[in-house]
Write a structure and sequence with these properties.
This protein is of the alpha/beta class. It has helices at about 50-60, 85, 95-100, 105-115, 135-145, 165-175, 185-195, 215-225; strands at about 15-20, 25-35, 40-45, 65-70, 75-80, 150-155, 180-185, 195-205, 205-215. It contains 8 helices and 9 strands.
Amino acid sequence: MFKPNRTIGNEALECENISKSYGEKKVLENLSLKILPGDKIALIGANGVGKSTLVQILVEELQADSGLVKWGATIERSYFPQNVSEEIKGEESLYDWLRGFDKKKESGEIRNALGRMLFSGEEQEKSINALSGGEKHRMVLSKIMLEGGNFLVLDEPTNHLDLESIIALGEALYRFSGNVLCVSHDRELIDAYANRIIELVPVENGAAKVIDFRGSYEEYLESKNA
């Protein structure tokens, strides 16, 4: 359940002429996108084509070689990184880990967020380091629920999740009143929420080509086969 703390204004996100290379390999070249309020985007493409690179540039975890990223003034973003298992470490309890991000949150809110991700009772007191990969994913989703962001940026959130959890996530993203940009290969998830598809297509000896389609994933596949 994702509830934004504030409504998005007239501008969500715009990026202009983003370029990024790793050594001699061009990954992104002069990529420009305008994301409007209400867009729920599935960012798709083959492994290694540059999806995570683009996402990391947008959330300012990675510096582009050139180009501009401009977030709307009313945007409060929440980010789910691909390498969750590496990022979540520590001896503290699940409850204390979540509380560390916002000391003003009421205890009941934190425990409810954990409960929604199936951490109940004594489980909330176990150590972060004791969690499996799937449990760490659920912890980050708990954190995002508590943050109340209005623009969710998710990089492969379904890794380690079972089908029931994936369906629940898809429904939550569909009901969410803010913006979504989600990297995923999971058809079940994409079908559930996306109203815009952006595909990065590999180009031989060059940066990926961008296909930008407004519509559902099913409509996008039909357009490709037409």
